[in-house]
Design brief:
Strand order of the largest sheet: 3-4-5
Number of strands: 5
Helix content: 40-55%
Mean pLDDT: 87
Distance between the termini: 53 Å
Radius of gyration: 26 Å
Order of helices and strands: HHHEEHEEE
Strand content: 15-25%
Structural class: alpha+beta
Number of helices: 4
Amino acid sequence: MPDIDDNHKRKILEVISKHVGKKKPVQVSDLMSFVPLSDREIRKVIQELILDFGEPIGSTTKGPHGFYFIADQDDLDETVNNLEKRRDMIDKRIKALKKQLELPEINSQAITQKGKTVINISNSIIIQL
C-alpha cells in the first residue's frame, strides 16, 4: 500500500475530531466522502493516528457504529472492550486453524538390510527397491 498523503490524514483527523463520544461516531463510508481513500486505507490512517500520534480515537461496533474522539472513561471502556473481544476472536481463529491443520508427528527409522533400505514410518513399512 503506497504512502498516504498527509493532507488526507489531516482531513480524517479533522472529521473524526468533530465526532466526540461514542454516541456520535462517524462511519468509514462517511469518511470516504472527504478523502479519495479506500476503507482499508482509512482504517490504516486511523491506526497510525492512534499508534504514532497518540490521538484518542475510539471505535464502536454497536449501533451507531464507527469512529469517534474518546470523551470520557465510558468511551475508553467501550473501545478497549471492543478491541479485547476482537483480539480474543482472533486468538480463537488461530488456535482453530492450527488444530485443523496440525499434521501428526511422523516417527521414522531407516534400516539397510541385504542391500535394501527399509523405512519404518509410524508402524508402516516402506521397502525401497
